[in-house]
């Protein structure tokens, strides 16, 4: 199964990418239950495992390149409000790859030490080494999202950060990191359902945080802050992808495919060994 369905999936990059011009994407108008390039959520669940072999193969090539003289890496930035499914992306998408080649980092409220530095300090320290795929569960974007909505810093401070982020990401890309930025967007109703489910189930209570309701009360402010992020930081070198996330299966498939596309674009081969294969074969044969 799946050839045609997989071919249709090739349109996902264009379908979900946010163009560089401000106003290119209208967050308020998007259908968060949509499944672009896929028939429905059930189909998405069937398709994702079909991408696993290629993803693992390309990851291994990248890792091998990094172990020789390669300088390239990939960084997946995962953003989204509470319940958007960030954790599920990390578990299920990153779970399709070899943990050895991954560098997974989550960013919570800055520690006292982190607060002593520029907001990008902790991000720089967490960047993937050559050959690795970094996954950021939240990121430097919190510094123009929660910091803006909760007024943690003065407006002129967060205002200046959009340009700082763009400059930072341009440098990263120039130094060999392919950046894939995904914003998982659930509808207000779906967020309500997911929070209510957490409070109803003993095995989900640990995921609930009373501050989730406070964040929900500022829904509109967060949407406006996300819209500003999309307007000001979706650069051609590192565009944003907005993922309709009411279906977890769809969101996971979409992110898997975007990551796969990023790896494909690197045109990864296998490194040439720095030893003579024939000589080594002969040496090995003598040890039989
Ligand atoms: P999640 O909600 O992502 O599952 P969590 O509830 O387990 O995570 P943490 O990962 O410890 O909590 O922290 C997430 C919280 O940290 C979020 O409320 C987020 O807004 C906040 N946070 C992240 N980065 C910053 C930042 N730069 N400044 C202020 N708060 C931040």
Automatic annotation (TrEMBL):
Pfam families: PPK2. One of its GO terms (molecular function) is kinase activity. InterPro entries: P-loop_NTPase, PPK2-rel_1, PPK2-related. It comes from the Bacteria. Keywords: Kinase, Transferase. The keyword Kinase applies. Residues 51-264 form the Polyphosphate kinase-2-related domain. This is Polyphosphate kinase 2 family protein. It comes from Flavimobilis rhizosphaerae. The lineage of its organism: Bacteria, Bacillati, Actinomycetota, Actinomycetes, Micrococcales.
């Amino acid at each position: 199964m799946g050839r045609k369905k997989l071919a249709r999936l090739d349109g996902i990059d264009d379908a979900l990418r946010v163009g560089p011009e401000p106003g290119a994407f209208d967050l308020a108008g998007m259908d968060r239950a949509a499944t672009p390039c896929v028939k429905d959520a059930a189909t998405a669940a069937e398709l994702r495992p079909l991408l696993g072999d290629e993803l693992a193969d390309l990851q291994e090539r990248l890792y091998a390149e990094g172990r020789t003289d390669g300088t390239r890496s990939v960084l997946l930035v995962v953003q989204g409000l509470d319940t958007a499914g960030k954790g599920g992306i990390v578990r299920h998408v990153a779970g399709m790859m070899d943990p050895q080649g991954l560098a997974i980092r989550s960013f919570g409220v800055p520690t006292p030490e982190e607060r002593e530095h520029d907001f990008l300090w902790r991000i720089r320290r967490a960047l993937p080494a050559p050959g690795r795929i970094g996954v950021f569960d939240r990121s430097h974007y919190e510094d123009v999202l929660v910091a803006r909505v909760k007024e943690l810093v003065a407006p002129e401070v967060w205002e200046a950060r959009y340009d700082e982020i763009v400059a930072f990401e341009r440098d990263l890309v120039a130094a060999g990191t392919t950046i894939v930025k995904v914003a998982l967007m659930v509808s207000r109703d779906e967020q309500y359902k997911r929070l209510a489910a957490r409070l109803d189930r003993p095995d989900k209570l640990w995921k609930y945080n009373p501050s989730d309701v406070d964040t929900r009360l500022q829904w509109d402010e967060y949407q406006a802050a996300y819209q500003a992020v999309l307007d000001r930081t979706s650069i051609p070198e590192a565009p944003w992808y907005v993922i309709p996330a009411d279906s977890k299966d769809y969101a996971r498939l979409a992110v898997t495919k975007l990551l796969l596309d990023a790896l494909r674009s690197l045109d990864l081969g296998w490194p040439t060994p720095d030893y003579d294969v024939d000589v080594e074969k002969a040496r090995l044969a003598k040890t039989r």
